[in-house]
Structure formats: structure tokens, C-alpha cells
Design brief:
The chain is an alpha+beta fold. The protein has a domain at about 1-105: Gcn5-related N-acetyltransferase (GNAT) (Aminopeptidase). Helices cover about 30% and strands about 30% of the residues. The protein has 4 helices and 9 strands; from the N terminus they run ββααβββαβαβββ. It has helices spanning about 15-30, 35-40, 85-100, 115-120, and strands at about 1-5, 5-10, 50-55, 60-65, 70-75, 105-110, 120-125, 130, 135-140. Strands 1, 2, 3, 4, 5, 6, 7, 8 and 9 form a 9-stranded mixed sheet that branches. A hairpin with a 2-residue loop joins β1 and β2.
Length: about 150
């Protein structure tokens, strides 16, 4: 799915692990200070992953959806933010998850990203909570907006 000067692809975890890990380490571990033990879990092998690459094939963003329908590990490297990469990643994740029958979809959004997810058809559920020292909000996809 070519978009502007980057491409979004659904990828296999094993084949794309180095690029996916590099993006997540840069954003979550280095930039946000998430402990490595909290970033890496046993969900990656079973999750559906998407990867954004620039025109040179460098990894610039990623996201995943687990078999239970949880969207997560959405990350875009700093120099590519506010250029449509996150929206393109989420749109591709929603399409792939719906095609694969993974509904209903939900996520734990960092507080700073709540408005982003609201624009994509999610709504807040419950109280704000702390995860890895960062304020989060559970969000669920609005059942009236199931198209990606």
C-alpha cells in the first residue's frame, strides 16, 4: 500500500523481527523509558504485524494486533511523526484484523494518543491507568464503525 514517501505492509514476525524490534526499541525503550522486560512478551509470534518503511527500506513504524483483538505496539520513529504514518499503520491493521475475523478490537492508548484513536473510531472505556510509568486509557472500536 504505497502512501506518499513510505509503504505499509503486513509482515511475518520471524522474517521482519529485526526491523520491528529496532523501531520498538527506539520508540518505547530508548525514547519513552519502557523497561525491556515489559516491551517483549509472548504475543509477537501469534500477532498480526504491520510495518512502515521509507523509500530506502528502512523501518519507520510498526503496530500489531493479537489474536484476542488487542491493537498495540504502535510506534513511529520521531522523524516520521505527523506525516500520516500512524494513520496508515492503523488503517492497515484494522483492515487486516477485520479480514482475519479479529473483532471486537481494543487497545490501551497512551494518554497523548487518545485523540488519534478517537479519530479512528475508538472510544474510551473505564478509568485511566498507569502502565510502564505512562498514563493509559483503554479504548474500544465503536461497533458502528467497523470498517477500516
Amino acid at each position: 500500500m504505497p502512501t506518499r514517501d513510505f509503504t505499509i505492509s503486513q509482515v511475518d514476525w520471524e522474517q521482519s523481527r529485526p526491523l520491528l524490534r529496532a523501531i520498538r526499541e527506539s520508540v518505547f525503550i530508548t525514547e519513552q523509558g519502557v523497561p525491556k522486560a515489559l516491551e517483549w512478551d509472548d504475543q509477537d509470534a501469534a500477532a498480526l504485524h504491520v510495518l512502515a518503511t521509507d523509500s530506502d527500506g528502512n523501518g519507520i513504524g510498526t503496530g500489531r494486533v493479537t489474536p484476542a483483538g488487542q491493537i498495540g505496539r504502535m510506534a513511529v520513529v520521531a522523524e516520521w511523526r505527523n506525516r500520516g504514518v500512524g494513520s496508515a499503520l492503523l488503517t492497515q491493521l484494522l483492515r487486516a484484523a477485520h479480514a482475519d475475523g479479529r473483532k471486537p478490537l481494543f487497545l490501551n492508548a497512551q494518554k497523548a494518543a487518545i485523540a488519534f484513536y478517537l479519530r479512528h473510531g475508538f472510544h474510551s472505556v473505564g478509568e485511566e491507568f498507569m502502565e510502564a510509568g505512562i498514563a493509559h486509557q483503554r479504548m474500544e472500536q465503536d461497533p458502528r464503525r467497523t470498517r477500516a
